[in-house]
# Entry
Amino acid sequence: QLQLVESGVGLVQPGGSLILSCAASGFTLDGSGIGWFLQAPWKAREVFSFFSTLDVRIFYTDSVKVRFTISIDNSQNKVYLQMNSLKPEETGVYYCAADSRWRVTTIEPMWMKEWRYDYWGQGTQVTVSA
# Structure
């Protein structure tokens, strides 16, 4: 069974830090593109970070650039997201997802297309509040 599982449920104060992990089973993350999404309350789910395992292209939206870091541990078949200086508006459910069709020739804007992602985790709740 192909599966992604996020972990790192947490309550963190504004300005705090949190690490989320995304573990794959039934397939290898190496060879895919991995994205992290946030669905804030009453908002659409949006991608904000991406890691291409094929050529180590990494992308972030401007809103998280500098504060968030995405990384991969191929030996554990996991992707990590280090989040620093968290803001209350970053409260919500965080999802990891894999794009198995990502290639070195895939153009950059494609990482932001939710329809490309074919494997999804169940999501993990992060609350940023005092």
Remarks:
- The chain has a mean pLDDT of 95.
- The first strand starts at residue 3 and ends at 7.
- The chain is about 0% helix and 45% strand.
